[in-house]
Specification:
Blueprint: H1 7-13, H2 18-28, E1 51-57, H3 71-75, H4 83-86, E2 107-110, E3 115-118, E4 131-138, H5 144-153, H6 163-171, E5 181-186, E6 209-211, H7 229-250, H8 253-276, H9 283-289, H10 298-310, E7 315-320, H11 329-353, E8 360-365, E9 369-370, E10 388-389, E11 393-398, E12 407-408, E13 410-411, E14 418-420, E15 423-424, H12 425-435, E16 445-447, E17 450-452
Length: 467
């Protein structure tokens, strides 16, 4: 090749450009382009999990009222907070002179592992031996949006790829008719919003795709009125040729993404309506989840998550809102647990009965925890609310190579600080990547002159969680 021929000239004249290959595939196969496959060399090691269902509780539920029993805190309820607990520490809203707030709910031990769980989890506690708890999770951010972005991208501001986008980028998709990364919402996203499933500086083909329970499952999926599927196919073929010309002129890789996404949308017109229709599920299954076909609910989303991973979707993230309980916690927290307890237990049981839990990793968690201090006035022996707390909180994992019954980490008598086996958010992400067969230090993307990764320059695999 002539050494004076630049990159743009090469792309214009070469019959072997990526755009040319993509277009040839579209035209030869009536537009049935495939989604990106895994990167060369991935997975780095045999995976324990092939799919992930991530249950993110938006707003940060109180670990002290759900999974981390503190008898001493209950004993000293309404006493002034010892000054040493708050020394050198900042809170989002409350001052440092608040009173201690013990949980008003009873805890008991469940399963052979003896996991301590609140009475607010009557269904989830029945599958306690499938769960592995991390009681020593901690993060760097104290407010919702930054903490949500930090959990999902390893960085407290926007612009970085989300966890799901990194997984999709590294491992690709198992189903060419569905996205590799799907998002389901019950309630408003709030906080960081769509940044939690953004592809950041990765090609946009790796962003999370939101599915909806009402109307079009995906926005603009249906053909416009008066347009047939055949006409849509002709339009996409013409559009692909125009995009190809633009790619040859500019070499912009996002044009390739655009071609691919148009084709994905065309295929999804056939695959998604069947997927979202729960009528094919048995009455027993519907009842087990507490789902209502055609309704927007966390229960429906749990059942849809099983259907998605069953069809090869790599990662499904469920976002459930309204867990930010600064006040009226004694009414609001039980309602949230009632909405989610049965569906989560049903999801785990359903996956297990179908032989899917062994390679499907289920994660429950949030951006941070809540303080052992009362926010607002007390109600007799009860509490009003709890403020944000980044230094100690709880998550749990199940399936996909996780050691059911395991428990990692410990907090002090008040649940304020980690005193044993701390697990940073970067460590959690490194562990999840490891279970998917990915070395978190080796999955990188070059951007603005440096190599980026999900865990930044941190993260260690928590071996105690893995079978």
């Amino acid at each position: 090749m002539n050494s004076s021929l630049g990159r743009r000239g090469f792309l214009k004249t070469s019959g072997f450009s990526l755009g040319g290959i993509a277009l040839a595939s579209l035209l030869e196969n009536e537009g049935l382009a495939t989604q990106p496959t895994s990167l060369a060399g991935l997975p780095h090691h045999p995976p324990r999990a092939k799919h992930v269902i991530y249950l993110h509780m938006i707003g940060a539920p109180s670990h002290l009222d759900l999974f981390d029993a503190k008898p001493e805190l209950v004993k000293r309820h309404n006493e002034p907070c010892p000054p040493e607990l708050t020394k050198g520490r900042d809170f989002a809203f409350i001052g440092k002179t608040s009173t201690l707030a013990g949980s008003p709910w009873k805890f008991s031990k469940h399963g052979d592992a003896g996991h301590s769980m609140s009475e607010l989890w009557p269904h989830l506690s029945s599958v306690a031996d499938d769960l592995a708890f991390v009681h020593s999770l901690h993060t760097d951010e104290i407010n919702h949006a930054p903490a949500q972005m930090f959990l999902h991208s390893g960085f407290g501001r926007g612009g970085r790829p989300s966890f799901g986008s990194w997984v999709s980028y590294g491992l690709g998709s198992e189903n060419e008719d569905l996205p590799g990364y799907v998002v389901l919402l019950s309630g408003p996203a709030g906080g960081a919003g769509t940044s939690m499933w953004s592809s950041g500086f990765l090609p946009s083909v790796y962003q999370g795709i939101q599915f909806r329970s009402k109307g079009d499952p995906v926005l603009f999926l249906s053909n416009p009125d008066g347009r047939s599927r055949g006409e849509r196919r002709d339009e996409l073929n013409a559009l692909a040729e125009l995009n190809q010309q633009q790619f040859l002129a500019t070499g912009d890789p996002e044009i390739e993404t655009r071609i691919s996404q148009y084709e994905m949308a065309f295929r999804m017109q056939a695959s998604v309506p069947e997927l979202m229709n729960l009528d094919g599920e048995s009455a027993q299954t519907i009842q087990r989840y507490g789902a209502t076909p055609g309704k927007e609910s966390f229960a429906n989303n749990c059942l849809l998550a099983r259907r998605l991973v069953e069809r090869g979707v790599r990662l499904v993230e469920l976002y459930d809102s309204d867990w930010d309980h600064h006040g009226n916690i004694q009414e609001r927290l039980p309602k949230k647990c009632e909405q989610t307890d049965q569906p989560i237990a049903a999801l785990l049981t359903d996956l297990k009965e179908r032989g899917m839990l062994q390679d499907t990793l289920v994660i429950w968690g949030s951006e941070f925890g809540r303080t052992p201090l009362n926010q607002g006035g007390t109600k007799g022996k009860g509490i009003n609310g709890r403020d944000h707390h980044k230094d100690a909180f709880t998550c749990w994992l199940a399936g996909g190579g996780i050691k059911g019954g395991a428990s990692v980490g410990k907090t002090d008598d008040f649940g304020m600080d980690v005193i044993e086996d701390p697990v940073h958010v970067h460590d959690l992400n490194a562990t999840v990547m490891h279970l998917l067969g990915v070395d978190h230090e080796r999955l990188t993307f070059r951007y603005q002159g440096r190599e980026f990764r999900l865990t930044d320059v941190h993260g260690h695999v928590v071996r105690e969680l893995i079978v």
